[in-house]
Amino acid sequence: MTALAVENLVAGHGLLTAVRDVSFRVDTGEVLGVIGANGAGKTTLFRTLAGVHPATSGAITLDGNDVGALSASRRVSAGIAMVPEGRRLFADMTVRENLQVAGENGRPGAWTLETVLDALPSLVPLLKALAGGLSGGQRQAVAIGRALMSNPKVLLLDEVSLGLSPVAIEGLYEQLAGLKTRGDTAMVVVEQDLDRAMQFSDRVICLLEGQVALAGRPQALGKQAITEAYFGLAHGSAANA
């Protein structure tokens, strides 16, 4: 079942169009990887999906319902939650308090403090710690737990491994794999590591200058085609053909 559908989405900053006619669909339980170089439009796309950046045109539907006119808070209530780049936790609150605040402002559902801790066991010994004193990997895990507390239908994860150590990245993806196995939430993941994106995602789209340059199942597309699309080599060849 399609959880999130995006049709011909356009978004920009003033005269700059950062997202150009982007279309894709994500099913419940599926992971869509979004890849692209810096400036490709990934963060603008995510902010537009989450409702914190206005769309110029196009449609965003959640479970078949148009959510394009909803505010960011109402999209959370509808079932879209974003883990933003930079985590943005409440630094002077404990991990428990960060999670509970999200739960109080989200949707009712299966995700509670208990089930989030079961899914993200690394948070258990951190519950009494202030979020501002955590490591990068720990903050990312808390940010994911906070998003889950809102009981999302679609989980948007922007720059999942940015700034994390290899050990922290491995631990984080182990926990994300557990979420994927549950099969009850669609995930859209921005990941700079192409190998990681190919391994974890069911499908990928590669953005180039705000447009979808390549889309499909990573194993079918292959590393070379994805790399060429990432750096604009395929785009350039097509343009000159």
Account of the 3D structure:
By secondary structure, this protein is α/β, with parallel strands linked by helices. Helices cover 37% and strands 26% of the residues. A six-stranded mixed beta sheet has the order 6-7-8-3-9-10, with helices on both faces. It has a four-stranded antiparallel beta sheet with strand order 2-1-4-5, covered by helices on one side. A hairpin with a 2-residue loop joins strand 1 and strand 2 (16-27). Helix 3 (95-104) runs parallel beside helix 5 and helix 5 (136-148) packs parallel to helix 6 (166-182). The termini are far apart. Residues 235-241 have low confidence and may be disordered.
Sequence-ordered SSE layout with sheet pairings:
Layout: E1 2-13, E2 16-27, E3 31-35, H1 42-50, E4 57-62, E5 65-66, H2 72-78, E6 80-83, H3 95-104, H4 113-119, H5 136-148, E7 154-157, H6 166-182, E8 186-190, H7 194-200, E9 203-208, E10 211-216, H8 218-221, H9 223-230, H10 233-240
Parallel strand pairs: 3-8, 3-9, 6-7, 7-8
Antiparallel strand pairs: 1-2, 1-4, 4-5, 9-10
Helix pairs in contact: 3-5, 5-6
